[in-house]
Write a structure and sequence with these properties.
193 residues; mainly alpha; two-stranded antiparallel sheet; two-stranded antiparallel ribbon; 7 helices; 4 strands; 7% strand
Length: 193
């Protein structure tokens, strides 16, 4: 296949990566991520629990961890599955069209998306950014109501909430940077494909 002018090649690759990263985000967050992982990834606390989330009792012989550790593990588990899907799709799509991204570029793009994804999904970074940009009122105002066997409760972070919209917007904006870095690393002079 003849080489395209570098600008055309870069724009085509950037567009492909941007579409892949952006469109896979909802799939990975809502279909690939497990319910237990989703419910635990924002847990914080110093109390001891077992790996199944049950409270640790004095004298328990089962391994324990803090609630925060359980939350971090859930976030990392989610991001690992997200990253695996992202890498598989990126490789499959680009190779199906006869294009190879350099391994270093693949790792760099995945690392940008993964590291920021875990930080945002834990919640503290998103809340800090919301406070800095004046979005806490939006988060507090746009909560979701849940109906569970006739009982109604409010949820600040789940589907239908401003929190979730802000989360998705951050992930997609970061995907622009990840796509740009991946494109640049792949198409820079001297890159081996």
């Amino acid at each position: 296949m003849p080489r395209l002018p570098i600008t055309t090649e870069r724009l085509a690759l950037f567009g492909t990566l941007l579409a892949t990263f952006g469109e896979l985000h909802p799939l990975c967050d809502h279909w690939v991520q497990g319910s237990t992982t989703a419910s635990r990834k924002r847990l914080y606390g110093d109390d001891l629990v077992h790996a199944d989330g049950s409270p640790a009792t004095p004298g328990s012989t089962r391994p324990t961890m803090t609630i925060s550790t359980l939350g971090r593990r859930a976030a990392v588990c989610h991001v690992a599955s997200y990253t695996a899907v992202q890498l598989a799709a990126t490789i499959s799509i680009t190779r199906a069209f006869g294009y190879r991204i350099t391994p270093a570029a693949l790792v760099a793009g995945a690392a940008i998306n993964a590291s920021t994804h875990v930080a945002i999904d834990r919640g503290a970074v998103l809340l800090w950014l919301a406070k800095k940009t004046g979005k806490t009122g939006y988060i507090e105002h746009c909560q979701a109501l849940r109906l569970d066997e006739g009982d109604i409760s409010q949820e600040i972070t789940g589907p239908g909430s401003a929190w979730m919209e802000l989360d998705a917007a951050l992930h997609r904006a970061i995907g622009i940077g990840a796509a740009a870095v991946t494109t640049w690393l792949t198409t820079r002079p001297g890159a081996r494909r």
